[in-house]
Amino acid sequence: xxxxxxxxxxxxxxxxxxxxxxxxxxxxxxxxxxxxxxxxxxxxxxxxxxxxxxxxxxxxxxxxxxxxxxxxxxxxxxxxxxxxxxxxxxxxxxxxxxxxxxxxxxxxxxxxxxxxxxxxxxxxxxxxxxxxxxxxxxxxxxxxxxxxxxxxxxxxxxxxxxxxxxxxxxxxxxxxxxxxxxxxxxxxxxxxxxxxxxxxxxxxxxxxxxxxx
Length: 213
Fold this sequence. Notes:
By secondary structure, the protein is α/β, with parallel strands linked by helices. Strand 1, helix 1 and strand 2 form a beta-alpha-beta unit. It contains seven helices and seven strands, in the order βαβαβαβαβααβαβ. Helix 1 runs parallel beside helix 2. The protein starts with 7 loop residues before the first strand and ends with a strand. Strands 3-2-1-4-6-5-7 form a seven-stranded mixed beta sheet, sandwiched between helices.
């Protein structure tokens, strides 16, 4: 008998802070039907929200199998929150992890594309979404304020100049991670603040681990 190839285990973790009902809407947009080639689990992780976010998270967990729930007793910060989810992913022996924000800022419909790109090459450390690949007009139609758009463009150009890379969006919060390259957990040394994504990107570039948009 020929055994089938093992499905890659994927954890989609949704980080939230005062997301309320929006976390429910985000979860509903995860395209599970397009992810059947993977073994998919989800983690709803809340950073001590004072609103009703947990109420919605608990409802989701009760309704859907293969769903974990984490509720931070005190607010630990954006970067520390991501670290906690990545450490959980490694502990549970997942192959890949995907980060989605509970406020709906990044559309889960791109998860299949992130994972497909990530699985193409074992040397790829992470894949990210980019709001700039479709052109500036679509970005502004999507609701990004002009001042944020200009700031993103300028900061991305500065990042590319100093690190000799060619990213189009260095401030995205849509990430998929190759956990096999994170087992040493050195990401825990990075900041606990909102600058975690940028520091993680710099770390990967310096260590010559590929990041694909």
